[in-house]
Design goal:
Alpha-Beta Plaits, four-stranded mixed β-sheet
Length: 105
């Protein structure tokens, strides 16, 4: 499993209004053999449901699995959070997408 082999450290940040969301997601990722470096709250902002950043290069297996898991493309560039030098991926959780279900009256 490339996720286990690469052991790329991930930081998870909560950009939603749901208390404990980053910790809960970090625990799910750890249970799925991902390496969690840290988790916490993202600065206030308007975030997509999932935003994924890669810091540096390499870790192609982990990058592919994270993109598949969250259905997003990895962003390169500086994430809006400060992380230590070990972190290779930053996941920011935003609010649940608004549903457009017309039957919910």
């Amino acid at each position: 499993d490339p996720v286990v082999r690469e052991a790329a450290p991930i930081a998870v940040f909560n950009g939603s209004k749901v208390v404990g969301a980053a910790q809960a997601e970090a625990e799910k990722l750890e249970a799925a053999s991902y390496t969690i470096e840290t988790y916490g709250n993202a600065p206030a902002g308007n975030y997509a449901h999932y935003t994924l950043y890669q810091i540096g290069s390499g870790n192609a297996g982990t990058a592919k699995k994270l993109q598949q898991k969250y259905g997003v493309k990895i962003k390169t560039g500086k994430p809006p959070v400060t992380v230590n030098g070990k972190v290779r991926f930053v996941l920011i959780l935003g609010p649940e997408p608004k549903t457009t279900d017309k039957t919910a009256n």
